Every structure is written in structure tokens, then in C-alpha cells.
Amino acid sequence: AQSVTQLGSHVSVSEGALVLLRCNYSSSVPPYLFWYVQYPNQGLQLLLKYTSAATLVKGINGFEAEFKKSETSFHLTKPSAHMSDAAEYFCAVSEETSGSRLTFGEGTQLTVNP
Amino acid sequence: KAGVTQTPRYLIKTRGQQVTLSCSPISGHRSVSWYQQTPGQGLQFLFEYFSETQRNKGNFPGRFSGRQFSNSRSEMNVSTLELGDSALYLCASSLAPEVASPLHFGNGTRLTVT
Fold this sequence. Notes:
The structure holds 2 protein chains of 2 kinds.
Chain A: E1 3-7, E2 10-14, E3 19-26, E4 33-38, E5 44-50, E6 56-58, E7 64-68, E8 73-78, E9 87-95, E10 98-104, E11 108-113
Parallel strand pairs in A: 2-11
Antiparallel strand pairs in A: 1-3, 3-8, 4-5, 4-9, 6-7, 7-8, 9-10, 9-11
Chain B: E1 5-7, E2 10-13, E3 19-24, E4 31-38, E5 42-50, E6 53-57, E7 64-68, E8 74-78, E9 87-94, E10 104-105, E11 109-113
Parallel strand pairs in B: 2-11
Antiparallel strand pairs in B: 1-3, 3-8, 4-5, 4-9, 5-6, 7-8, 9-10, 9-11
């Protein structure tokens, strides 16, 4: 079975600082990987997805992620944090047989300090 | 275009009762999936429907069931509620169940079982 591990349940950065949220996956086949963001009392919003077309994936709101097969990683980054980035972030991997069946990581709560 | 709509937003039920949650997908989306989100277990896949057929089911007891109608709207039902069923239930829709077809989530139904 595929799985993802997010390192760090809480990450705190200063406004304007680099954001780095870590995600490692486990998969026996080339995976499809996603990052979602969840704001309080809302559902999940897709930030970006990796589908093997390019290893560096650009998403919305200035986020990007790099797929590194050798490290089985798909870390999320943003060069300069904004207060509005404070939210919970989830890394997910798609099951081979269905794009709707995602396995999510535990989530990382991002706090942005002024 | 309207997003995924889930009703009701909040629900309080008593142990032993049953509950039905509703989900209206984005117009044109034919695949609907459901997830349960709890602080302890995180986001877990419940089931997926496409063209009124259940394609996948997660590791949940038979008390959890769902269905999809011809207009792609979906309902999920939980019978004989237990305290542990308290959770945020998220519905997501996509154009089709192909891998890497992005999921669009609703804002969820917050179920509290007392």
C-alpha cells in the first residue's frame, strides 16, 4: 500500500521567510502526488499535483514542490511566507487504481509570525 | 461555477441514531468520494462513486454506506452512531475517477455524536 509521511506536525516561520514543508512517500510504482491546504472550517484546496510530467511543480499562491525519486520526497516550498499562508497542509498520494482514493499524510500546521 | 456543496454544515446526533449527509458535486463532475477527518486518525477514505456505482470502499464498518444518484449527487449514511463517528465528513468531486484527476472538496459536514 502507498503511504505518505509528513515530517513535523507544526512549522512556524516569520512573515517573509522561506516555507518548507516536508513530505516523503512510499510507493512501489511511480506515484501521483498532491499537496492540499485546509483553512479553518473549510474543506481542502488543491495547491499542486505531480503526475510525472515535470519534477518541479508550480502551484497556486506561489507554492511549488519538487519530486525527488531518489529521496522519495515531495517537499513543498514557498520563497516568502505571507500571513495568509497560515493553514494546515496535507500531502497525499493517489492509489494506482483510482484518482479519487487518496492516502493523506498527517498534516502540517503552518504558523506565520508577523 | 458553484463548488461542491455539502449539507448540513453541522449536525448533532445521539448514539444509536442514524444520519444522512448530502453532497452536490460541481456541475459536470461525475465522480464523488467521501472522506472522514478526525484529530486522531486524520483524513481517511470512505468510498467513491462514479455513474451511480461504488468503485472503491475504505476500511470502515458496514454501518457506513453511500449512494449516488443519476444527477451525480451523493449521500452517505451512518447507522447506529457511535461516539467515535464524531468527525468532519468531506465530500469531493472530480470529472472522472482517473488517476490524477484533481479532487474538489466541499466545506464538510461536522457531525457530533453525544
